[in-house]
Amino acid sequence: MQQIAIYGKGGIGKSTTAANLSAALSINGLSVLQVGCDPKRDSTRMLMGGKLIPTVMDLLKIKGERGIDKDEIIFSGFNGIKCVEAGGPDPGIGCAGRGIIATFQILAKLGAMDADIVIYDVLGDVVCGGFAMPMRESFAEEVYLVTSGELMSLYAANNICKAIERISKRPKNRCRLAGVICNAKNLYLEEDLVREFSDMIRSKLIHFIPRDPAVQVAELNRMTVIEDSPDSEMAYCYSDLAKKVLNNNSFVIPKPLELDALEELAQKYRPL
Amino acid sequence: MLSKNLHKNTDRCSGCTLTGALSVTTGVTDAVTIVHGPAGCAHHNLSLFLSISKTAKNSRNPVILSTRLKETDIIFGGENALKETISHALIYKPSIIFILSTCIVGITGDDVEGTCAQLKGVKIVPIPGEGFLGGGFREGFISALTKLSDVQNSFQGKIKSGVNIIGERNLESSAEFQYIEVERLLNSLNLTVRTRFIRNIKAASIDLIPDASLNVLRDPSLVKIGEYLKQRYGTPYYSSFPEGFAETKRFISEIAGILDMDPTDALNYETLIQEAIKKEFFDLKGLRISRKNLHLELLTSNLMDELYADLNIQVTEEGIPFRFVDTPPVGSNGVRYILTKIRKSQIAGL
Ligand SMILES: Nc1ncnc2c1ncn2[C@@H]1O[C@H](COP(=O)(O)OP(=O)(O)OP(=O)(O)O)[C@@H](O)[C@H]1O
Ligand SMILES: [Mg+2]
What is the ipTM of this complex? Predict the structure, then answer.
């Protein structure tokens, strides 16, 4: 079983990338489980025909931990992909991080992490210990950063590197940075910029995803691109990503940059 | 080893913030205190509190409820649990409800003030009790008193008379004895006590706080509260109970000064009492007592210097074994009390 976690700045395209990656992997004949680790609970929506599925936290609230059954939280989506949403409190109340911790405990107890490949789609930044849960022992060993060439997106990715660096130092922890995925915003020399950033943090740019309206069209059709337009260029792009993820075998402890270095890099790629 | 993590390097005032706050809120006899947190926070503090109260011969049976937060309340917020517990508290028909927040709700950020503000019909006072914010027992104690000094309906500008006692140490076994002595001193100036803020009072008495002409603080750590009440109601304050003969006389004359009274009679009377005490314990003259089992506050207080000056009683490494683990006793009769104890030790050692 391969377990990967997807981190990146809020709104950068993590869920879109995760869902399309899951879809592409499953088309290749692999069993896939996607776990949305975000109280927004929209990670798996495009795999579930636009539906928001009941979350693990919803069930915990209603039934208590003992009463939860596997099939009440695992839903079968596009091409049999298993979908789970952690869920969490309403905005502005409670403790979402604790919700993620509780979700992982419940999933582990139920033996729910059961597929050829498990993808954890984690919200924005690693704001507190709870959101680092997917990187802990026995969960994801490969972290992919999704970023564009925008400075603040790189800044967030760099911060996540700090979390990976810290966590990887713990005894027995095997969590490593597996690579950077550039989800483009159509910026000037964006691919070069993100590649250089990836090298600087001692990782590599493993894939470049162009910004393409096909993604939004698919979203409006409540589907992934893989499902919506399987022969499109974008569908090939995501399939390509899937292959790279499967064949990737270079995992590193990243070296986060200082803000100065990050800014210097951004200056170098200043738009003309 | 000097480690701040070692338990023995913490003092009695570094205990749980909740215990400090509870020692105040449970002094309101017609109140219910709700501890907003996991069941253990309330249970542990209550057991500790009850066992101390027992040695303090203070047989109160306060109503303390817990919101009994569980994991889901932490994840989704504990505000519903709080509302439910408040409605449960109403069964006891309390005149006032105190909400003490524990560490965990400070982390998850439950809006306790906001939740309480939605509920009408009973006075609810939220008191911050999160220990991790820094501080311990003492801060909880002060935080509760501060909150309570703020709940009065606005001051009517009545004619002021009487004295409030602010911040009695409810968990000390000698608390009542301390009070009786201070009341005696005030009576000798023809002053009466109005509100004991907070010890064995009804919630309604809290509203009388503004009416006193003077606030007497238990000790100078409460000066902030003294200042606050002074600013809000114009009531002057005296900052401590007196320890030892000299401070006792100063207590009388300075309070008389604040209230523009003549202390002569009271002072003369106190002199007689103090002379009588010295005479009563003249046989202890020149005694050496061991410092081993004495409260640090006592060792450093003026009281011990006075015992040396008046009766040549000295604290030494050797001396007769003498055990006194309380804080220094209050007033002239406090000196008498400690001398009685010394004599008992002397007799036991013979
Ligand atoms: N390559 C792309 N081309 C065009 N649009 C894209 C692309 N990737 C993502 N988007 C669009 O960007 C928006 C945000 O994407 P998504 O919800 O996947 O981001 P996210 O990182 O998961 O956000 P959040 O942090 O809020 O969970 C979506 O409307 C999505 O359709
Ligand atoms: Mg998302």
Answer: 0.81
A-B contacts at Cβ under 8 angstroms? 38
Residue of A nearest to B72 (CA): A61
The class of domain B163-273 in CATH terms is alpha beta
DSSP-assigned beta bridge partners for residue B288: B314
* Average pLDDT over all residues of chain A: 95
Give the Cβ contact number of residue B91 at 10 Å.
10
Q: Which residues of B touch A90 (CB under 8 A)?
A: 76
Q: How many domains does chain A have?
A: 1
Q: Which strands make up the sheet holding B96-101, listed edge to edge?
A: B63-66, B31-36, B96-101, B123-128
8 Å CB contact of A96 and B108: no
Is pLDDT of B349 > 90? no
Minimum-distance ligand 1 atom for the alpha carbon of A211: 3
Give the model confidence (pLDDT) of A5-45 as tens digits: 999 999 999 999 999 999 999 999 999 999 999 999 999 99
CB contacts of B79 in chain A (<8 Å) are: 93
Query: What global pTM score does this model have?
Result: 0.85
What is the residue extent of each domain of chain B?
11-149, 163-273, 274-349
CATH architecture of B11-149: 3-Layer(aba) Sandwich (3.40)
